[in-house]
Amino acid sequence: MNIFDCIVIGAGPAGMSASLTLGRARRKIAIFDDGTNRNRVTQESHGFITRDGITPHEFKEIGISELRRYPSISFYKTTIIDIEKSENSKLFTVETSDKQKFHAEKILLATGVQEEFSVPNIKEYYGKSLFSCPYCDGWELRDQPLVVIANSEEHALHMAKLVFNWSNDLIVLTNGAKLSLVGANELIQRNIKVLTESIKSLQGENGVLKGIELASGEIIPRTGGFVVPSFYRPNKFAERLKCEFGENGEVVTDGNGRTTQKGVYIGGEMEKGGPSSLMFAVADGSKAAFSINTDITVERF
């Protein structure tokens, strides 16, 4: 049987960070990844000291190569399709898409989140000239004519105020959503134009935005900007393992990666069900690993 101390699902920054810590603690680890990490469409990753500007692919390859130095860490490039734990067993069982089964005392869920968009053809530009995080990509778009695309007043105001720090040549598009007079005036006073008309399509070449066509046919020239997508977990593993959820959809934890289910831990974007930075995800993975190793130590000593 393929029995491990911990199975880590997801080789993003949280999963790799946790695996590194656990591998250095001499734990037998299996880390699974299917290459669907959310930032794979991004050209560069920013804000991670010593790695500013690195491509997500290179960041991941460096991480995996570091993990391979530790003989107790095994890496599997495949998709986990199911997790279960029988009442009579202390082990979790995971099944892969190629019908292999692996077993472990602990499970770390670190598969992140994925985006959903309401704007046609936006994926052609996402990660190249349209982004979701000003802290990650605002510097590269500074002082350009930018757009903020957000489908609610709360998101529109929050994102516009943030992006205004990098460029005051700014237009807000709500794609059909209405803003209150108070909210709209708050932006207009800063010379930020607000348009609530629906978006017909985005225009440009090779992922570089040139303009946005509205339903009326009007074209708004823009060279880049920020969009507020909705986010979702790409699997139901936390539900399958009967983890408790909070009122905002977050997985309830003790603050250090432990869920309400014994032996189940979570880290990175998957915990909150929303976006995070590389730095925060790495820290989450490290905290979860400390909890996992502590629990294994106490249980076996």
From TrEMBL:
Keywords: Flavoprotein, Oxidoreductase
Protein name: NAD(P)/FAD-dependent oxidoreductase
Classification via PANTHER family: THIOREDOXIN REDUCTASE 1-RELATED-RELATED
Species: Cytobacillus horneckiae
Cofactor(s) named in the record: FAD
Lineage: Bacteria, Bacillati, Bacillota, Bacilli, Bacillales
SUPFAM superfamilies from the UniProt entry: FAD/NAD(P)-binding domain
GO molecular function: oxidoreductase activity
Subunit organization: Homodimer.
Domain FAD/NAD(P)-binding: residue ranges: 4-285
Oxidoreductase listed as a keyword: yes
Keyword presence, Flavoprotein: yes
InterPro entries for this protein: FAD/NAD-bd_sf, FAD/NAD-binding_dom, Ferredoxin-NADP_redctase_2
